[in-house]
Each structure stands twice: as structure tokens, then as C-alpha cells.
Amino acid sequence: MINLIIIWCLIILFILQPGIAHDGAVAGAQLFMHALLPYLLPYIILTQWLLKIPTESRSPKSWKRYVKAYILGSFGGFPVGAVTVTEMVKNGELSRRESGYLLAACHAPGPMFILGFVGTELFGNTMSGWKLLAAIHIANIIFFLLALLLMRNSQTKRETPKQKNNAKTSSSPLLDSIRDSTNVIILVATTVIFFSALGNVLTSSISSAFTVDLGITKTLLLAIFEMTSGVQSATDHFFTSPVFPFLIAAIISMNGLSIHMQVFVIAKTADTPLLPYLISRLWSIITVPFILYLIL
């Protein structure tokens, strides 16, 4: 019943404010084309291709599989970590419990996004982008090591990954990787555009109903719904503020519902537990701005 009420309220808001919804959707589409697609698509295809190449045997050492998941997942951008972990589960390289911990640890924005879009275009300084990227990965590596410790001391070591049937191995891994990457890109584009439009409509509605600061309201709502739109709004309204870089770090660490929906949809295909992922988001929101403060 509550879901129906929320849905109908949002439908009514979109009908009453078609222009604002349109502007939000256009802004989301432009951000996707400019800030996400060029940085995300090549890495998703290459990661998928690498994971689909048949191997002679699976590595018997757990830490090698975990490092592989971290390297491929953490440096590809959202939601490449989820794609990597679920693909490794389907390949028989990870168990369900392992995938839950690794989904949480192997989740970071791509270096090209941080250095190219955030560092160069928002901060106006590539070195600041490098420092933010370092803060994100320091926090992630600490969480990754904690996850390894938990997996070692839990029943994970008694749960063996299910081996994939080699008879079903694809003879065209590149073509399959392009096909699967298309599905991921469509998912990313859909969530980014939808939540950007939703954030714009809600910002307008709240600003009309209450006396609030438009910059703060818009940045907060967009950060909750769509990360890329949130950092763009923060740049528009808080660029001269001394807290600006830490605000950007917090927004990127929070990710927004758009990215969370992408991860949830992808993780569902492998029945991956999501509680560690939710805990890791809280960890990042707290630690990444603090580490960035120490680095700066």
C-alpha cells in the first residue's frame, strides 16, 4: 500500500512539473554521455572479456581470487565491481558468502572518472583527483583486509565455490562481453536519467513548499538519488567553500540510489548477500573524507 502511494505521488509530481522533470532527465542524459559512458564502457568490455576467457584450471589459493576480484572490480568504476564479482560466482571462482564480502570491498569509482571528470573538470587540478582516488582506495583496502579476515575466520573456508560446467563455455568471449556490457550500460543510463529527473522534481517541490536554501536542498537530494548529478550540483553551489573537496568525497562515497540500484540488480543475478555492501557504504562515507583531509 505504501509503495502504491509513493508511486502515484511521484507520477502526479511528474505530471504537474513536466518541464522540470524534462530538464532533470536531460541533465542526467548529458552527464551520462559526458562523464560516465566514455570512462565506463571500455573498461566494462575489457573486464568482461577477461573474465570470459576460458582458463585451464581455477586458482586453488583463495587470496589470488580475491586480489583478482579487487583489481578488476575496484578500478573499473561503478558498477564494474558488482559485474566482476557476479561473473566470478557464475564462473565458479567465488562462493556466495565470498561474493557478499567482495561485492562490498570491490566497489570504487573508476580512475578515469576521478582523474578526468572530478579532478580535471570539477577540481581543476589533476593532483587533487589523485589524492581523492588515493583516499578512496586506502579506505577500500582497509575494508578489503577486514573482509579477508572475516572470510578466513568464518564458515567461508568450508563453503566451496560451485564449478561452472565447462561444456557451456562460450567460443566467442569478446562478442559475449560486448553483449553483456550493453546490458550494464543500459542499466546505468536508465538509473542515472531516472534519478536525475526525480531529484530535480523533488528539489523544485520542496523549494516551493518550504523556505529552504536551494543550493543545499538540490545538492542533498541529487546526492541521495544520483551521484554524478550530486557532485555537479555541489560544484555549482559550493565550489568556493573550503569544505568543497570533502563534500565531493562524501557524495562519491555515498554513491546515491542510482548506483545502489545498479549494484542490487546485478548482484541479484548471483544471489549475492547485500548486508556487507551496505556496511561498506557507511564505512566509506565516514573514512574517505577523513583520509582525504589527512592527505590534503
UniProtKB/TrEMBL annotation:
Annotated transmembrane regions: 31-51, 71-89, 132-151, 184-203, 243-267, 274-295
Keywords: Membrane, Transmembrane, Transmembrane helix
Source species, domain of life: Bacteria
InterPro entries, per database record: MFS_trans_sf
Name of protein: Sporulation integral membrane protein YlbJ
UniProt organism field: Sporosarcina luteola
